[in-house]
Write a structure and sequence with these properties.
It is a single chain. This protein is α+β, with helices and mostly antiparallel strands. It has one domain. The chain has eleven helices and eleven strands. The radius of gyration is 22 Å and the shape is globular.
Length: about 425
């Protein structure tokens, strides 16, 4: 769980409405506003004013700012990469069905892209919508699509498979379940409302039809927007501030580190990124037995506010050479935060955008909980791999975590107007 933070950005650019829709100032179509307000007028809400369509004296409550927030589908980079952490997430991997190939995959990506565009705009899906999210707005819904190593062989596109998509090396601390790892296709779903996220999950699964079958699926969560007095770096289930040193889109080299350039190599990956997904179980019973001071030594940061043990605030530069009166390093040599620093790994950087998870409590009373680690980079061989190798050799956190599943996927750039995700690969 490298010590990097998630950028606190809100995508405020909403795409234009569908033909026949009149887009309101808050980015929701007239059709959506009417569906929200019913036959009554709209009043000013947290997201700003909207034109009212009065037909009754009573005023319906408008969508809150959480429900009203919308992320664009037709963007340069696929949605779900640079957006802030979302309150609810689903990760799902598919394998193409026996006999399915490039033709079936193309039709599937067309369906998924159309569904993503509709749902992210707060509209129902085109086919057999379940109505689960009928009363909610888009709630920052994002859907992100990627291709696994095995996808290219099954579709006859081996020559288009990126070198960067070669399988990750083995790590000595791995305890991987192959049935819950990798896959031909990968979908990430995130939203700030649990029902909106579940609605998208069901739509994606139903769209797969006979073309693909679910290989594995995982559910995650984060703190809800507005739950704290001010925007803060997230905490993980160990109670630690997790993500302080994440690259930020305002960094001059952000795009270079996170996204494949245009023109890309291969060309269809221009403006795309590579995502590493790891299910990391936290051994919480063991961790919680440690005194806070020992937990802080393992991480290298104060638990209360995320500040480095060398002093200052959360964002203060960590002094790796500072010693205590006895001559011991204040930030231990094997502290997690020291090992994961980019300047300790040849500049290796990745954009972390994780979800916590909790899958119940076993008969032995031990919680099955931890982190769905998700990190983005232009090249995993220069991002995730060198950092994980170093963690594998001596991270103080290793005795308290277990890597149980893993996947690597190529995520192409966003679909332009009139395109579907992956079109440049499947029709190139």
């Amino acid at each position: 769980m490298p010590d990097q933070s998630t950028p606190q950005l809100r995508n405020t650019e909403a795409p234009q409405g569908e033909p026949g829709d009149r887009t309101a100032g808050n980015g929701i179509s007239r059709r959506r506003l009417l569906g929200t307000a019913g036959a009554t007028g709209l009043v000013l809400g947290a997201a700003g004013g909207a034109a009212g369509y009065a037909s009754a004296p009573a005023a319906a409550t408008p969508l809150t700012s959480v429900g009203d927030s919308r992320v664009g589908f037709h963007v340069k980079h696929q949605p779900g990469i640079t957006q802030p952490l979302q309150a609810r997430g689903h990760l799902i991997a598919f394998d193409l069905a026996p006999g399915a190939g490039r033709k079936e995959a193309t039709a599937l990506l067309r369906r998924w892209s159309d569904t993503a565009r509709r749902l992210m705009a707060g509209e129902p899906s085109a086919q057999d919508d379940t109505g689960v999210a009928r009363d909610a707005g888009p709630s920052s819904l994002t859907l992100t699509f990627g291709f696994g190593h095995s996808f290219f062989g099954r579709t006859g596109l081996q020559k288009q498979r990126p070198v960067a998509l070669e399988p990750l090396p083995d790590f000595s601390s791995d305890r991987l379940d192959k049935a819950r790892s990798n896959g031909d296709l990968w979908v990430q779903i995130g939203a700030d409302d649990a029902l909106v996220a579940f609605h998208a999950l069901r739509a994606v699964q139903k769209d797969a039809g006979s073309a693909a079958r679910v290989r594995w699926q995982m559910n995650g969560f984060n703190r809800s927007p507005g739950a704290t007095a001010r925007p803060m770096t997230a905490r993980n289930l160990m109670g630690q501030v997790d993500g302080t040193r994440n690259p930020k889109p305002t960094d001059s080299d952000f795009d270079e580190r996170i996204f494949v350039p245009d023109p890309g190599e291969p060309a269809w990956m221009a403006n795309g990124s590579y995502v590493v997904v790891r299910r990391i179980r936290m051994l919480l019973d063991d961790w919680e037995k440690l005194p806070v001071e020992e937990q802080e030594s393992v991480i290298g940061r104060r638990k209360s506010d995320g500040a480095p043990l060398s002093g200052g605030t959360e964002t203060s530069e960590m002094d790796l050479e500072k010693t205590d009166p006895r001559g011991n390093l204040v930030v231990p040599i094997n502290a997690h935060a020291r090992i994961t620093r980019p300047d300790q790994n040849g500049g290796a950087a990745m954009l972390r955008r994780p979800f916590s998870y909790h899958d119940g409590i076993g008969a032995d009373g031990v919680p099955d909980a931890g982190l769905l680690f998700i990190c983005w980079q232009a090249d995993p061989l220069r991002g995730f791999v060198p950092v994980q190798r170093k963690l594998d050799r001596g991270d103080a956190l290793t005795p308290f975590v277990r890597h149980e599943a893993s996947g690597l996927f190529a995520v192409p750039g966003g679909a332009a107007e009139g395109e579907y995700v992956g079109q440049r690969l499947l029709e190139g």
